[in-house]
Structure formats: C-alpha cells, structure tokens
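pinging the channel bc i need a second pair of eyes. not urgent but kinda urgent?? the chain im working w is below, pasted from the shared doc
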Amino acid sequence: MSQFDVTIIGSGPGGYVSAIRCAQLGFKTAIIEKYSTLGGTCLNVGCIPSKALLASSHHYEELQHFADHGIEVSGDVKVNLEKMIARKQAVVDQTSGGVKFLMDKNNITVFNGVGSFESATSVKVTKEDGSSEIIESKNIIIATGSKPSSLPFIKLDKDRIITSTEALKLKEVPKHLVIIGGGVIGIELGQVYLRLGAQVSVVEFMDRIIPGMDAALSKELTKVLKKQGMKFYTSHKVQSVERAGDVVTVKAENAKGEIITLEGDYSLVSVGRRPYTDGLNAEKAGVKVTDRGQIEVNDHLQTSASNVYAIGDVVRGAMLAHKAEEEGVMVAEILAGQKPHIDYNLIPGVVYTWPEVAAVGKTEEQLKADGVAYKAGSFPFKALGRARAGGDTDGFVKILADAKTDEVLGVHMIGARCADLIAEAVTAMEFRASAEDISRMSHAHPTFAEAIKEAALAATDNRALHV
C-alpha cells in the first residue's frame, strides 16, 4: 500500500500547483486524476483551449482590417475550422504535457483513476479497467473542480444542444448560435464564432451581460459587441429548448411576459458551473458537503475532517483558476506550519473577449450598497496615442477610491491588453496604494498602461492630462 504525506484529488490548476508547492516544502506527494491527461478543466476544456480559439479567431478578424494599415491581402481569406480546432488541441496537449513534466521534475507520484474516500486517511483509486488500489495519506486535498451547469428542463444532447466542452470542438461554424447565459464563458465563445461568421444571439436572465462585474463594463462591452453584430436578449427567462433535426428552438419570456422564439442550428447552454464531487464518497471521510455539492471549509480551507482540505471551484468563492492556485499554495504552506493569507477582494476577474474586460476590488454598485463614500475617475482608450496607433480605441479604465483616504477600492477596465494591465491594479491595491500614488508613478509612453495613470489622475482632483 502506497503511503504519502499529502495526496491531492484532482490535477487542475489548484491541484497540480498545490502538489508542486507541497513537494517544494518536502512532503511526499501524490496526485490523483480521473482522466488520462493532467490539467483538469482549465487546461483541457476551459481556459487554455478557449483562449487558443479566441486568439485564432482574433487573427482572422484582424485580417479583415489589414487594408486600414496599408497591407493588401490578395485572394479570399478563408476559415479552416478543422485546422483551427487541431491547433487548439496541440496547444492543450503541449500544456498538459508541461504539467506532467512538472510532476516528474518534483517527484510527485501520479495516479490515473477516480479517487474516492475509504476513510479520512485513505483513498481508493479506481482505474479505467476496473482495477483499484488504496493510497494512505496523512493529509488529503480535494481539488475536484467543477462541471458545466444546465437548467432542469434542458436536455443536453451534446450535439446541437451543447455545453462549453462541445463548443470547443465543433466541426462546422454555426449558422445561428443561440447562447443561453451572458456570463464570461458564453460571451467569450460567442465572440469566437461571431468572428468566424456565425449569427450569435445571447439570452440572459439578468438585465445585463457579465452581471457580476461593474455595470459600466457591462454597458461598454454590450455596446462594442452589438457593433460587431452580436444580438442580446437581456431580462429574458428561458422557457424551453427543443431540437427537431438540425434546428434548435429556444423560447424565452421577456420582462413584459411576452414569449420570443429563436431558432438556431446550435444552442450553447452557458448558465454557470457546479462543484464536482460526484463519486468522491466524502461522507466516508467525515467531510460535509452541501446540497449543491460544495464542500464546507473554514478560513484555512480545512473541512470538517481536520486532515482533509478543499480548494478551488469545489469550495466557496469565484470559480477562477488563479484563485484555485492561490488556495492550493496556501494549504501546502499551512501544512508546513507557515501562516499564508489570501485577500479574496484582490482576486482579479477577466473576460477574454476583444476588447478584454478586467476588474479587481469593489464595484460601484457594491460601494453604494455598503454606504461607502467614494470618488471615481475614468479615462477613455480613444484618448491614448498607443490605442489610436494600433486601432484599439474601444473602452476605458475606471478607478474607485475612498473619498476620505484616497485608497484605491476598485479598478475596472475594458480595452486592449486589460487582462495584463489589471496586474498593476492588483499590485497597487495589495500595497494599499492611493489614487495619487498611482498618478505619480511614471508610465512608459506610448502604452495602454498610461490609461491607468490618467484614470488615477482623474480620481485625484479630476486632473487627467489628456482629456
């Protein structure tokens, strides 16, 4: 029987990063993965493949505007979806292989199979051929992630009525893709196929898309995507999704009680994700799981079984790969007797459309609801020399600061390179910088990052320089 100091169930970003940190700290470490490849949802059917398709479709879209830059492309520019999907898979395979390399490098034992508890210190690994073995471990970390959610009345056939997993490997560009859910995943995949020539309609229950982010970001992204051709049906409650042959019919009720009907050849159901604890047998370890499948943890991510921890999508909080990574490192360091800490307010969120959307900290809506006196400063990308030079003038940066102390409370941005620019805001807020602190930092010219400095100036006595 194999014995380990720490065993991690699940090899997604939270799991494999936690395993690496445990190994670095001197623990004899094992990781269990039910699939044949490592990396979990993120690397295989989530973050990485979706960004590969976003990149490929973005290149195709940019080609349509090369003439604006004095570059003439002769002949028809065509989409080879099969090759695009193959490139995506190559990126996935390379990235997953990189995780395997890291496991070997750090002497982490990998078990392929389904991990299920036999007790608080033993896990059974059931392999694909039906055989199994027992692992004994002093500590166990649950990192089993999440799966796409659906609605009770929708029958997912994974052919025409699909989830994000199937949307990453379609064999044709849809004529009309009807997306149910205007969150991050739906909007990102919607833009991929919009660029490739599909008609895209988004049905969203809330009154705006990306409803968890600042309302100003939602408004701007809606405006830009409408300009690109995407259609939105917000404040619409889906009533039914039916398939007849190659036609999928979606019926939804609007705020007036009227029923609208949308017909497409594909419907992407993108209504969020649910914690995945199926088959874990957590009760055998004394681990409490909620009715929704979420594992209960304390502030140290410790479950009701003192030697069992849980991280990532399977516990409370945002379902983000980088949040899971931070939690994985935190648990490893707690086991080593250290005192790590995570400020969940400073976990950034990103939408990888173009323009990109990124945010950290409090939204205006949250500050108003909490009764916090604040001041806001915004700066449009169209006023930046670098944005005009590159032709990426959509969007803005908005900084929210405490009205009395000037401490930055939230940063919200939409525009080119915002997924990378948000790191400056996270850094500033980690050190409790004021808007004036940021405004007095030198930013290279010409760069997109200058928008952050200008927004800080706008929040500091409304003294932006270039508007």
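so The chain has three domains: 2-147+274-342, 161-271, 346-459. and The chain has a mean pLDDT of 97. — does that match what u expected or am i reading it wrong
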